[in-house]
Amino acid sequence: MVKVFIIDDSKDFINSAIKLLTEEGIEVIGYAYSGKEGIESLQNLNPDIVFVDIVMPDMDGFSVIKELKKLNNPFKTVILTLYDNDEYRKVSEEIADGFVSKSDFFSKIKEILEGILREEKKKTIYKK
């Protein structure tokens, strides 16, 4: 079973994502409402995929992923955002294993997970 962790400051998004992922047979092993909380929690957890929002009050998602990559855990990271633009996509390609807009998250979750979990060199980027 695929295990995921979600870092997002939107409680509504996290609740909706947990519901969808659970319905799809995916285990949500945790979530955090801030980057710092997520980094702290992930020091003791081992998910397959971590979804990280870009815009959060304490630290941005790119900084969170840079910190997560320093941990010994071999999980994949996926940028989540409401703000789908070329700048965010470019940075995501450099530091994350995938990128998805929140509007596509719910309709493409199976495709997202399959793409991220494949052992391919290319990045998984989802467009509208």
TrEMBL record:
4-aspartylphosphate PTM positions: 53
Protein name: Response regulator receiver protein
Cross-referenced PANTHER family: RESPONSE REGULATORY DOMAIN-CONTAINING PROTEIN, STRESS RESPONSE REGULATOR PROTEIN 1
GO BP: phosphorelay signal transduction system
Residue ranges constituting the Response regulatory domain according to the UniProt record: 3-117
Presence of the UniProt keyword Phosphoprotein in the record: yes
Keywords, comma-separated and alphabetical: Phosphoprotein
Bilayer-crossing regions: none
Cross-referenced InterPro entries: Bact_response_regulator, CheY-like_superfamily, NreC/VraR/RcsB-like_REC, Sig_transdc_resp-reg_receiver
